[in-house]
Every structure is written in C-alpha cells, then in structure tokens.
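Q: Got a minute? One more chain.
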Amino acid sequence: MIRLFKAIPEQQMPPYLGDEFVVDVSNASGGFLIERHVPGEQIEETLLVASAEIRTSQTGREWLQFTFNSSSGSCKGKQWLNQGTAEEAMRPYLETRIVHVTAKVEEYPVDSGNKSLTVQRVKAVHDVAGTTLLPQMPMEESASDYRDQLIGLVEQMQQPYRQIALRCLNLYWDDFSTRPAALFHHHAYIGGLMKHTACMMTIAAGICQSERPYLTLLKCIQEAEADHKNDLFQAPERATRQFAWDDSFDSLYQAARSITLLDQEPNQDELLLGVLLHDIGKIWEYNHLGATPSRFTDLLQVDAAEETLSGIAIDPLGSLVGHMPYGCFVFERALRDEALRIPLDMHHRMMHLILSHHGKKEWGSSVTPQTTEAWYLHAIDLLDARKEKWRTAQLL
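A: Always. Here it is, folded:
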C-alpha cells in the first residue's frame, strides 16, 4: 500500500481469498498524457471520445467540445468550425468513438497548467479496441492491494455496519471496483473509486485508532502544508503554476475547528461506512465502456433504456441526481435487502455523512457537516483527493 501520511501507521491487510470481490483491472502504459506536452506542441494520437457536444458562443459561433481518453489519462479538446456544419464535423468522432487526431496543445490561462487539445485533422479508427484506451491505474500500483485493504477494513467493522457494507459491495462490486473517482482532478482512471475509498478508509481507521484522533488529523494537515510549501519553493523551476493543494487549507482548518467545538470522539464504524458510501453513487453519475447495463434498473423502479458507452464521461441522466442522493439510495436498499431496521438517529447520521461530504454547498454538498464524523469525512476526502493529485504531479 502507498504510505499516505506519516501520521497514519501502516495497516497491511491479509490477502483476500474469497471469490465474491474479484478485480480485473489492467495496468496499461504508454498512452497520451497531455501533462507531458508543452503548449504549442503538435501531436498525433489515437484517442477514445468520452464525450462530444456542439457548443455555441454568445455571438452564435459554433464549435465542438470533447473529452478524450487514453490509457494514461483524460484531457479536454475542441475543434473550431471553418467550413461545413457542426453536425458534419462531428460525424468522424461518433462513427466508432475512436479517432486519430492531429492537434495542437494549448494552455489557457497562460501558465495555469490547464491544457487542452485543439484538433486540426481527425479520422475515425476501426481497428482498435476501445477498452485499451480507457485510463488505467498507474503501473506500479495493484488493484488487488486496494481491494485487500478495503475488504480487510470492512471485516473489522462491528455489526450492523459490516453487514450493511458487505451488502452494498455485493450488490455493486463490478461497477464499484472499476469506476473512476473523478473525470480529471483525482483518481480519474479505471479502479480509481475503489482506490480512493480504500485509502480514505485507511486514513479514517488510523485517525480513529490513534490516542488523540484530532491531533492525528492536524498532523496530516501539517504534512499537506509542507507539501504545498515545497511546491511553492520550487515554483520557478516548474513547467506550470498549478498546485495540488490550492484552495484546500481553509476547508481543512474549518473541519478541524468544528471537530474541536463538537468535542466528541469519532465513531470508527460509522465513519468507515460513511467513507464506503460517500462516493458509491458515482456508479450512476459516471459511465464508460464496461459499465453494468442493469445498474439503473437494479437500484431504481425504472424501465431499461439503451445507452451508448465509450470513454469515461458524466452520465447525462445520473448527473441530474448526482452521486450523493444515489449513495443514500444504495444505503436504503442495503437496509431493505438485509431486512435491517436501525435506530432513527443512526439512519439520519449515515445519510448526513453522504450528503455533506463536500463540506459546503458551493462545492456541491446537499447540507453542510454537523457531526464529528461528517467533519472528519469531509477532511479525509479532501486530504486523499489532494494527496493523489499532488503525488501524480510529482511523477510528471
């Protein structure tokens, strides 16, 4: 396992020997990664079209907007229309959703690190399997290790938390173990959701099992600050001016302050189950090749509908609801499937963990955190997401 924070002791779980939670995540390498290229550079690459849409400016000018995938990651792209219609220009992108593009790397704003491709020529590709172009977990990492860590921590839970957690995983394991945790910012690859959840559970268990959980959280925040300061010291030598820990510390210290005022020890089982459920709704908020066709009908009282899957993209229907409410649906279904009735206050605290984990409404939270566990969950989510983004930047 990756050592996440020095304040969190290593807790290596035994290998999982069962046959319920199988992982089959390849570690491909060598794909196009836009961060390795400089603005103005011309590239020729074969890419998977994750999303494609026609955009219109305020002046009425149309252009094409894309998200592209390769085995090494995702990037944004666009194509300006100089002749013909937008629908005609879009056809090669939708023919097989795999394209060979000649494009220019651009960065806007300048020195922001926000790079994208401006496509100049495009051709549909017919002889490449789309699954080989999905972003994959880094080669030096093992999906099996993260699975072992996650299942090991679930097995340590007391009842009924363990029963609920195992039911959720049994219901949706195929999707949970392959879905990314985000499109661009962190864990944006196949298996990213499982890794993000396993790492967060490791941090949460380490905090709860420490002699003084609050101080352990503060030590993690201090380590994050040290990473950020080192990035700033090295800024003159960096190719970009984008830093992983930007806009993090106000929220982290707000969480720490709120935990101090509440003055309660965290409930480890409640926090771990909240971590497991906090992003599980991304199974419905995102889609990609390999997503289970029945994932909507298995959870909701709806008719089946056809869908076109390609690269990692926001699901147009799932995004109307968002991953937080879907997480609540999963929790409620697990209770019903297991014929469990739990105390009303426990039920609402679990729902609150899912609905408040982004910390503030402008970041997408349905409600703001009000319990000790909710503030810890928000802080741990932010710490792990930013740490992953920071680690990725160090490898470029």
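A: The radius of gyration is 22 Å.
Q: Perfect, thanks.
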